[in-house]
Amino acid sequence: MHPPLRFSIAPMLDWTDRHCRYFHRLMSKNTLLYTEMVTTGAILHGKGDYLGYSEQEHPIALQLGGSDPQALAECAKRAEDLAYDEVNLNVGCPSDRVQNGRFGACLMAEPKLVAECVAKMQQQVSIPVTVKTRIGIDEQDSYPFLQDFIETVAEAGCETFIIHARKAWLSGLSPKQNRDIPPLNYQRAYQVKQDYPQLNISINGGITDLEQAETHLRHVDGVMVGREAYQNPYILAQVDQRIFDAANEPLSRHQVVELMLPYIEQHLANGGRLQHISRHMLGLFQGCVGARAWRRHLSENAHKPGAGIELMQEALAKVPLAQTA
């Protein structure tokens, strides 16, 4: 079981890769970081290193996409062997591509299959197996529908649910629209915690600052922040003190950039491009004087051959130190 109070960053496709996670970890030691969703097929049959990460990223969870219990169990085992701290099953992604593979949000309609997946994974590993879900799909968005899903999957041994407090429309809306158009219903997630106090319930969807997070934590066990943590990453600097009551002093924005430089140098030495990392850092100075100059300098130059840490230092010099304290 996880500690009762959690703060995490949502798995976001094309965003929360290992470079993004390393960057986020500098600002918060305690936040749980998630990989992008990785399909079982990619892990079992793909050529890439889909499970690689840096030691510094702990605590880190692997999010899996799939619906074959055996394949999920095998991937969970690989995750545990690689010392991941949690394995999470995606029952929330609404994209067509995902539905065709019979995973993501469409699995809400098959709670027994999800329960079987969870049970098989748990037989293989001792790390927590968790489920990220929506509050409903299409016309199936009543509270009893969500209750049936939660009860069935909890009976299989799942103790932690991350609830994106919107339903998903499986046809007619794009994944992007599904993040905004279906209305948020936080009360639905609160109700789950009330009715199943023994379960660990985290809430996700539309959370844009730590005040909101603290409000949610009066009703549920954890908060998962998505786009805001990506677009305005410096909100993480206050998380350890405010959410986890930790004593560590927040780094300044300039310190965060300085600490990224050795990591960037290593990436470049291994044949990587500056842009692979700098794209995750564009929002670091949001709200500060010089933020636009920082973003522009990186956006216009980081993709160029030979771009290195000098470019980061040039961009940093455009942000007055006094303005970012």
UniProtKB/TrEMBL annotation:
Catalytic activity: 5,6-dihydrouridine(20a) in tRNA + NADP(+) = uridine(20a) in tRNA + NADPH + H(+); 5,6-dihydrouridine(20) in tRNA + NADP(+) = uridine(20) in tRNA + NADPH + H(+); 5,6-dihydrouridine(20a) in tRNA + NAD(+) = uridine(20a) in tRNA + NADH + H(+); 5,6-dihydrouridine(20) in tRNA + NAD(+) = uridine(20) in tRNA + NADH + H(+)
Statement: the UniProt record of this protein carries the keyword Magnesium: no
Keyword Oxidoreductase: yes
Cofactor(s) listed: FMN
CDD domains referenced in this protein's UniProt entry, alphabetically: DUS_like_FMN (cd02801)
Residues holding FMN: P11, M12, L13, Q63, K132, H164, N204, G205, G206, G226, R227
Enzyme Commission designation: 1.3.1.91
Known function: Catalyzes the synthesis of 5,6-dihydrouridine (D), a modified base found in the D-loop of most tRNAs, via the reduction of the C5-C6 double bond in target uridines. Specifically modifies U20 and U20a in tRNAs.
Keywords in alphabetical order: Flavoprotein, FMN, NADP, Oxidoreductase, RNA-binding, tRNA processing, tRNA-binding
The protein, known as: tRNA-dihydrouridine(20/20a) synthase
Domain DUS-like FMN-binding: 9-316
Enzyme class: oxidoreductase
Family the entry assigns: Belongs to the Dus family. DusA subfamily.
Active-site residues (renumbered): C93
Annotated positions for site Interacts with tRNA: N90, K176, R179, R292, R295
Pfam families: Dus (PF01207)
